[in-house]
Design a protein that fits this description.
It is built from four helices and six strands, in the order βαααββββαβ.
Length: about 140
């Protein structure tokens, strides 16, 4: 991780917002997708991150922070330093498949709002204390 801190913010897999987002994904799709896809996807991502956390040394593991939020998702934000790719949550598709736009820096009204949104969601999220054991007690190892 080259000394960098990595913050990952995911919608809580058991939240009502995750169920609503999942319901918005099934519009026009096969009944196979009626199961809560967001719940399954977030849990899958956490399992992958736990595998990564097991492979990291203690210092690097402390710099990999993951938190779960329970709120309506506003935007998908993929951010590195002062640059971000931003997408919206459209019905019937994943944000990663929706149109995306790039923000470079906080020095515009849009940039300030986008970068601030991540901070707002992080402030209401529950950080997972030990990512390696996120699933113990139904993922309740959050702070």
């Amino acid at each position: 991780m080259n000394g960098a801190r990595v913050d990952i913010l995911l919608l809580h897999y058991d939240s009502s917002a995750a169920a609503l987002r999942s319901a918005s994904m099934v519009e026009g799709l096969d009944a196979l997708y009626e199961e809560n896809r967001i719940r399954l996807g977030v849990r899958h991502n956490l399992a992958i991150l736990a595998t990564l956390a097991h492979a990291l040394d203690d210092d690097a593991r402390q710099r990999l922070r993951v938190a779960l939020y329970d709120s309506l998702p506003s935007l998908a934000i993929y951010r590195t330093d002062d640059r971000a790719l931003v997408s919206v949550f459209l019905h019937g598709q994943l944000a990663v498949d929706a149109p995306q736009f790039e923000i470079s820096g906080r020095d515009t009204l849009l940039g300030d709002k986008i970068f601030g949104e991540f901070g707002t969601l992080w402030s209401i999220a529950q950080e997972i204390k030990d990512l390696r054991n996120w699933d113990d007690n139904d993922g309740g190892d959050a702070a």
